[in-house]
Amino acid sequence: MTGNHRDKTITRRRAIAVTGGTVAAGGLAVAGYQSAFADDATTAAATASASAAGSECMTLMTSVTEGPYYLDGALVRKDITEGKSGVPLTLRLTVVDATDGCTPVPGAAVEIWHCDAWGYYSGYTTANPGGSAPAESEDGSTADDQTYLRGYQIANGNGVVKFETIFPGWYTPRTCHIHVKVHTGGEKEDGTYEGGKVNHTGQFFFDDTVAEEIFTLEPYSRHSGSYTTLDNDMVYDGSGAAGGLLTLEAVHKKDPSKGYKGFLTLGIDPDAESTGAGGGGGGGGGTPPSDAPTGTPPSEAPTGSASPSASASS
User: Fold this and answer.
1) Is the pLDDT of residue 127 over 90?
2) Is the Cβ–Cβ distance between 172 and 226 less than 8 Å?
3) Whether residue 54 has pLDDT greater than 80
4) Which backbone phi and psi does 168 adopt, to 5 degrees?
């Protein structure tokens, strides 16, 4: 595969409905780079005040589908890699209350999950990622096939969480992405997060130029095929940070293999509840190209974990 190949057979659809400041069920707001650096209460308050100075705190959107590869019971932990190889990625996410002047939401649980460098998800390691890729079992890691690249972090007093992971790979017919849920009202129990409710279900996205450069590196380059760019993705709506596009900072500008830092601010409505079935335009269904895998979890995968209402291509 070369990262420059584009899958023109996929019709782009806007699966995220922007509601222009009106809080929707599972409401999410995203802001850019400056808010992600709000480590102390003074800076956070100043950023919130600046945001609130306009006619609205942030742009709010409905949720998108959780996809077919969600599993309950992810572990509360910062490092979710479990030895999976790939370009290092540090995520710094800030959760704020978009209905209350963008004030931090301490205690919010942010849950993420994504595929490995070859497009495989834990729990579903025999689902074909499309194109040509080695079997997941050939990666040589000691990762647990049920838990790798999944985890929770609990927001600190400034609403901030951090994750250590790897840059995701890709699978047909989707662009490179990370799934996310924001929970409130529950608590850490037995190493995971229990109770409460999901306020938002969404996805994070990556600039095509960065993704395509990374996919020329090992181990990503061993997965060949047609990579779907942002413009052709069935979930990303083209609105930049407001649609989940991460702000990325290279650890070493001349050497992408050293890794990236990704930043985003998530503005939620703590009273909203997301089902994970998607909203707005339908949550990323669409018809995959005729030669694409369905993405349906294999029969030996854990039962009762994937959303029955989610699209098999998400």
Assistant:
1) yes
2) yes
3) no
4) -65, 155
